[in-house]
Amino acid sequence: MELDSLYQEVILDHYRKPHHKGLQSGFDIQVKHNNPSCGDEVTLNLSISDGVIKAISWDGVGCSISMASVSMMSDLLINQSYENANQILAEFVELMQSKGQSQGNEALLDDAVAFAGVSKFPARIKCALLGWMAYKDASSQLMA
Amino acid sequence: MVDLSQYKKDFPILARTVRGGNPLVYLDSGATSQKPEQVISAEGDFYRKHNAAVHRGAHLLAEEASAAYESARENVASFIGAKAEETIFTKSATESINAIAYSFGNSDSSPKLFLTEGDEIVVSEMEHHANLIPWQQLAKRTGAKLRWFEVTEEGRLDLSNLSSLINSKTKIVAITHQSNVLGSITPLKPITEAARAVGALIVLDACQSVPHFKVDVKELDVDFIMFSGHKMLGPTGVGILWGRESLLNEMSPFLFGGSMIDSVTMTDATWAQLPQKFEAGVPNMAQAVGLSAAVDYLNKVGMNNVHQHEIALTKQTLDGLSRIQGVKIIGPVDIKDRGGVVSFTIDGVHPHDVGQYLDQHGIAVRTGHHCAWPLMRKLNLVGTTRASFHLYNTPDDVNKLLSAVSQVQSYFKVTV
């Protein structure tokens, strides 16, 4: 059914067993983002040194889409250069805005292409973007 | 159970199909109700035949529009046992509450209505944001203190500290008639008695009550009530503020402009009589006329029938949900003093995901904090899934809900 394109197995896996969840100390910056329409919240700790994403840890409450997305994002971005991370971020945002027309660039997004189905559900796009926007905020503050 | 099945066909939207090709099962009337053809036509006919700015213009259309608008007011007033001049059209219940809260913070209002430091405002933990934030912000502006009733574990208003909460400092008690999350109906009598004893005014948020059961402002012994048209089969963009005539006369207006004046010079102005004093600008005429058609419709069905019907659906839902493993009802499980709103959670599945699953089966529900975030925090919840009813819902709608809910955990592979 149509719903299966939204709830890909890999998304539900990350929801049930999220990666990098649990705030770690020693971060360079902490940001807290929420989605006021549904109450989802993400707190994200980020460390960047020598232009490389050294650490991301996070905590939060939310639906499977928002929690799985921040989990996969952490996997993708840790150890990437700031420039590469920006490229991945841009690709993910573009995928979310694709209205179901894009499969996503697997070379950049890896498992996160599973979120392609989200772009067909307008109300869920902001769920998938919650953690990414927290990262964008935190990293751009650090690199400013 | 009363049989209201003959009315469903009057609601054109209920004949459409939605996601997955499923017929629409609309269980989100607590957010907004659907509209019968009679309301849609009344609004359309106003534009097609009578449209003109009311209370101005020297032509026939202006006369017809004014008559339609004022007759709508009389109809809505009579629906709640009120006088027409005390029944003010606003754009929403939210605007109605803000209008009162504004007046209480405005020194142009009579001293009795003007809040200062040391005064207290009493609300409850189960208020919708619309009946919390205006008072919270009024308290901040004036230095008054905001206090609140708590909610019991069962999901009802905790009246155990009533006598200390409502005291000689209390100026306003602003409370919901029925929780939009828990469905519990507020026991008003002890609250109004306590408020009267100390001379406090009572503001009743009737958004979840007026559309669903008979409300008579005289019997309730409150000072202000507000509700919205769109939750009672009427159009969006129109709400009601009802207040006691003497109080409305002492209140300063919230919006200034055309229609609300008695006389104007370059440096001063005086205000029109009620209700025009509170209706600046060309009002939402077509919407008021549509609301009047909604009132006619509800009167035709009978508010007691509407209530009985919704109670039966609610009982069916409560009974059914309580039999499904992993489902927890948030709010009273007892049908006593309870309206047609049922919130629940499902272990291991976030409400947003529950709602998405139900949507795939054509079932429209509300998920999240329901504009009652403090209540969610109190209950230690991130949100709930909420089914809410109106007269067009059927036992079959509830069966479809129960059937889909019972499959949610297995779809999301929650191990129990």
Can you tell me about this structure?
The complex is a heterodimer of chains A (144) and B (416). Chain A is of the alpha+beta class and 144 residues long. Chain A contains 6 helices and 3 strands; from the N terminus they run ααβββαααα. In chain A, strands 1-2-3 form a 3-stranded antiparallel beta sheet, with helices on one face. In chain A, strand 1 (29-35) and strand 2 (40-49) form a beta hairpin. By secondary structure, chain B is an alpha/beta fold. Helices cover 36% and strands 17% of the residues of chain B. In chain B, the strands form 4 sheets. In chain B, strands 2-9-8-7-6-3-4-5 form an 8-stranded mixed beta sheet, with helices on both faces. A 4-stranded antiparallel beta sheet of chain B has the order 12-13-16-15, with helices on one face. A two-stranded parallel ribbon of chain B has the order 1-14. The longest helix of chain B is centred in the N-terminal third of the chain and has 20 residues, at 60-79. Chain B starts with 24 loop residues before the first strand and ends in a 5-residue tail after the last helix. At the A-B interface, helix 1 of A face helix 11 of B.
Instruction: Assign the CATH class of the largest domain in chain B.
Output: Alpha Beta
Number of strands of chain B: 16
Mean pLDDT over the full residue set of chain B: 96
Strand order of the largest sheet of chain A: 1-2-3
CATH topology annotation of chain A: Sufe protein. Chain: A
Q: How many alpha or pi helices of chain B? A: 13
Task: Give the domain tally of chain B.
Answer: 2
* Beta content of chain B: 15-25%
Strand content of chain A: 15-25%
Summarize the main sheet of chain A. Answer: 3 strands, antiparallel
Name of the CATH class of chain A? Alpha Beta
